[in-house]
Structure prediction request, 411 residues.
Amino acid sequence: MRHSKLFCKTKKETSKEVQAISHKFLLRADFISQLCSGVYCLLPLGWRVLRKIEKIIRTEMENLGGEEVLLPVLSPRSMWMETKRWITIDPPLFKLKDRHKKELALGPTHEEVITDLVRKRIKSYKDLPFSLFQIQNKFRNEMRSSGGLLRTREFMMKDLYSFHATEKDLQKFYEKVKKAYFRIFKKCGLKAVCVEADPGTIGGKISHEFMVVAETGEDQVLICKKCNFAANIQKAGKIKKCPKCKASLEKKQTIEVGHIFALGTKYSEVMGAEFVDKSGKCHPIIMGCYGIGLPRSLATIVEVHHDKDGIVWPESVAPFQVHLLLLEDIPKVKKIAERVYKDLQKTGLEVLYDDRGDKTAGEKFIDADLIGIPWRMVVSERTLKKNSVEIKKRDKKRVKLILLSKLLRYV
Prediction:
């Protein structure tokens, strides 16, 4: 991609109201644009990152055996009334009426819709277990939207639902999802902690959140240094000693990036989603629910991976792998830079080529640090005197000169 053609206008600063580091850098680097409170446009650079996060998640869901669906944003009042969540869900629903005066809701979550799908199709134990997932926009009527993508009113979420004949089978799958979540966050460059959590208005007897330690996080968790115990402070209360090993607990600020629930029969009982077992007896289907917010994960990556100059993307989710800078817009240098750009693309690398003729070398370096692509390559009069390209890793200070003749072998 040529930077001269890229839909991106970086900024030197943001409003004083912008506090979160991720919010600041994503706005300045033009990954996102705010439309109104809690509602953001994802621009080309931001969308490229989100799609890579999405690919990581989708791969893991498919490896679990999940089948992908796409459920509607709109759902009827009658369905929410079956579970009473038309009134009780928190945050409250975004509600609207169509031209026939029928009430609808914008889906913040899809337990009712997925349970309705299943009750119409599943009748026998032979159909169980199975799981369905989607990656789709959600709408949360938040009282307070803050931190850019960390807390929004419209966002993209992956939700996986599993369906079982026994509690034992649900627990077995629940543990598999836990492991998959750890892999997802690790691939995204995040070190997640799994903590016991309050199921809230989603429900279920067992619930866990996946938290990433970050100074700007709104959540607080208690973590034991000696064993693997960790708990959301809302769930654990004010305990000071680890309930498992009695060691002292440490309080940490965190960002929630995932939440999973062993729902049991909360929805299947009230909505009549049942199956017949081997002996002919009827039982409510046992369910699990597992969510990851994609834009929040994106913002959390920036909260963890940045320096004073900008974002430092992990290679797995970076918008491009290489940022190629043409420092002088003169024929000899431009000719070599164009050749390097085309050669790099032939190897399959994703390259952002800063070919802008109206920007100084200093402006290009500032933008490169701000945008945060893992590898920076520079072609200039100085490097060409040594028949070389300058290469630097975004998170390192050391600069290397690589001969043009050896560049492709190096990358």
